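Is this the right way to post structure tokens for a design question? Let me know if I should format differently. Anyway, here goes:
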């Protein structure tokens, strides 16, 4: 099976301006496709911006709303799958969500952030209640979670047990927690034997300072691609052969003793 070339769009887009964000996404999809990528991953709340206050509710859309249609058109025209972050409206509730759309424009998976971070998110969002969202993509099982979710080892282990090969994590990681991007994410990839694409925002939005440092971490704990602190499109390869070899050699998942872990819940 060939490697899945994956593009990480480290960008904060244009907070408050969805049309401008879609233009940035389209240009990035064009560059990703030119580099041979089949999948493009954006940051948390990419389409609308993260620190937009009441704009969260004003700009929220259903999972099949106009923005989803616009992203599907971009994915189809550029020939790449797209994972994008956005505020999802469902009735009276608004979720911090991420949706995966295939290169054919089909909606493959939608995920709602289960672990909300800080007073800002608790004010504007309802937490999701489905821990594992997955889709098949080019022969790999793709999983989705958002930012703070990846800092809970139980969350990532649930994906490992469900067979996730590549975990996509759009994030809004801020100062002074850059150690998550630098250290926690590669360790999560190693201890769960998967690839993790961790894609951050950058720069300042209101009181938040995003640190960049997006990365693609492999099952051997090595960082396959790493961004700096500014706007950047980073390309990395998800190698199924390395994944298979690493899972054969690493005994973590085989040596688990679930009977001892009941007290964890």
């Amino acid at each position: 099976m060939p490697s899945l070339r994956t593009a990480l769009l480290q960008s904060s887009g244009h907070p408050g301006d969805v049309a401008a964000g879609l233009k940035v996404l389209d240009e990035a999809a064009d560059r990703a496709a030119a580099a041979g990528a089949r999948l493009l991953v954006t940051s948390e709340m990419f389409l609308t911006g993260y620190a937009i206050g009441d704009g969260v509710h004003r700009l929220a859309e259903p999972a099949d709303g106009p923005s989803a249609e616009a992203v599907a058109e971009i994915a189809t025209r550029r020939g790449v799958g797209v994972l994008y972050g956005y505020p999802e409206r469902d009735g009276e509730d608004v979720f911090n969500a991420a949706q995966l759309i295939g290169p054919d424009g089909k909606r493959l998976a939608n995920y709602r952030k289960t672990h909300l971070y800080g007073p800002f998110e608790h004010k504007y969002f309802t937490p999701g209640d489905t821990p594992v969202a997955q889709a098949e993509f080019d022969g790999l099982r793709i999983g989705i979670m958002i930012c703070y979710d990846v800092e809970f080892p139980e969350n990532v282990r649930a994906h490992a047990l469900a067979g996730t090969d590549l975990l996509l994590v759009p994030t809004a990681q801020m100062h002074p927690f850059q150690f998550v991007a630098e250290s926690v994410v590669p360790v999560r990839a190693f201890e769960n034997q998967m690839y993790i694409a961790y894609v951050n925002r950058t720069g300042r939005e209101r009181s938040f300072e995003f640190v960049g440092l997006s990365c693609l971490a492999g099952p051997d704990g090595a960082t396959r691609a790493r961004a700096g602190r500014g706007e950047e499109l980073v390309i990395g390869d998800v190698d199924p052969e390395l994944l298979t070899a690493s899972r054969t050699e690493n005994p973590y998942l085989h040596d688990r003793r679930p009977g001892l872990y009941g007290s964890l819940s």
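Format looks fine. Someone answered above. Worth noting: The mean pLDDT is 97. Residues 140 and 165 are 6 Å apart (CA to CA).
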